[in-house]
Write a structure and sequence with these properties.
13 helices; two-stranded antiparallel ribbon; mainly alpha; elongated; single chain
């Protein structure tokens, strides 16, 4: 009996060598292997809290250029992605869930080992260590999980599609901001003092002196600066409160007049205040009111992008849907090892069910984690690149 327990202990010790994805130690330091602005910080002295979870989101604001697209299409991408798998912030973030699933698998394997018999390292079969009417092998039919798999797949597909749709919508809002800031300043610059504006080449000569180059430069400069102030205030409005408040205040004070900067900074709704100041600056331009109306159409689009972004930030995917999906996948994966035990009868003491459970949980929990990370898009959008 003692030799049996010694053999089982050796088997259990071997099983503990199975690698499980667990959250990184608080004192661990990981470095990024990527050359683009993506993934964990490259600086090896960076705190571990920035290698996964909330701290790593600011490193996912990637802006691609031609060089990055070349690397993205590289034939080595599969090898690179596999070799960096253990550094993935997504997988580190689900470490507790994967550890729980792997622990259940290890328990099922160990219990069936001592209650149903086992094979030692020499291929000799031994009787159960625990002989009792209640100590029997545990398991579930695989049919339950194959029946539920399509439903789980539909839940995950909708979850990821809804989250990606939110990210894509936020990206398009920022694209509209870029397009219409350019459009606004193009029209203001081209129409100032042109055609029907006082002092243009086609205007009477006695009004030609109405255009003051210094005044033109100042007024157009105000339009340009306040356009920037709106977009910068919108970025600050959609970012975490403690992320760049000090930088935001410093940037406004360095570019705007003290009165303008203080008015925007102290406003209850900073983007709206900046948009109001921009409207006033446009109204001061010496041009026909019809042209001012055309320029002001861009401000209406700014209002739409701001309101749409606030909607995305304040309204998640319905919580009852995300919670049901999380509960569904958690229960499905926690009970899956009970059904996998019999499927790996060809491996030594069914031990391959443990790494199989680990990999399945990593990839399925990873899909749900991807959807959760995409759901709030503004902290992973490269807004500073715009």
């Amino acid at each position: 009996m003692i030799s049996r327990f010694t053999t089982v202990a050796a088997i259990l010790a071997a099983a503990t060598q199975t690698v499980a994805f667990t959250p990184a130690s608080k004192n661990a330091v990981l470095s990024s292997t990527t050359s683009i602005n993506m993934g964990p910080p490259i600086d090896p002295t960076a705190p571990v809290v920035e290698t996964y979870g909330e701290g790593s989101r600011k490193y996912r604001r990637t802006v691609y250029t031609h060089n990055e697209w070349v690397k993205h299409r590289s034939s080595d991408r599969f090898v690179n992605n596999l070799t960096t798998l253990v550094y993935s912030g997504i997988y580190k973030n689900i470490g507790k869930e994967v550890l729980a699933t792997t622990s259940v698998a290890a328990f099922v394997w160990a219990w069936n080992l001592v209650s149903g018999g086992y094979e030692d390292f020499y291929g000799v079969m031994h009787d159960p260590l625990i002989v009792s009417q209640w100590a029997t092998e545990i398991g579930l039919p695989l049919t339950i999980f194959t029946t539920l798999s399509p439903s789980l797949g539909l839940l995950l597909v909708f979850r990821t599609n809804a989250s990606y749709g939110r990210w894509d919508e936020a990206r398009k809002f920022w694209g509209l901001n870029i397009n219409h800031t350019r459009d606004l300043n193009r029209m203001a610059t081209a129409w100032y003092g042109n055609d029907s504006s006082p002092g243009s080449a086609s205007a009477p000569k006695q009004t030609a002196k109405a255009i003051d180059p210094a005044e033109r430069e100042y007024l157009l400069g105000q339009v340009s600066l306040l356009t920037w102030a709106f977009v910068r205030s919108m970025k600050r409005h959609l970012s975490p409160p403690d992320e760049d408040e000090e930088d935001y205040i410093a940037e406004l004070k360095s570019r705007l007049s003290p009165e303008q900067a203080d008015a925007i900074i102290s406003a209850a709704h900073r983007p709206n205040r900046a948009l109001y100041d921009l409207s006033v600056a446009i109204e001061k331009l010496p041009m026909h009111f019809m042209r001012k109306n055309e320029i002001n159409k861009n401000l209406s689009i700014f209002e739409d992008t701001l309101g749409g972004s606030e909607r995305l930030l304040s309204s998640p995917v319905p919580l009852f849907y995300t919670r049901h999906t999380a509960r569904f996948i958690s229960v499905w994966l926690l009970f899956l090892p009970f059904a996998l035990y019999g499927q790996f009868g060809d491996s030594w003491n069914h031990i391959m069910m443990i790494p199989a459970s680990l990999l399945i949980s990593v990839f399925l929990f990873g899909i749900e984690e991807l959807a959760t990370q995409l759901e709030e898009p503004f902290t992973i959008l490269p807004m500073q690149g715009f």
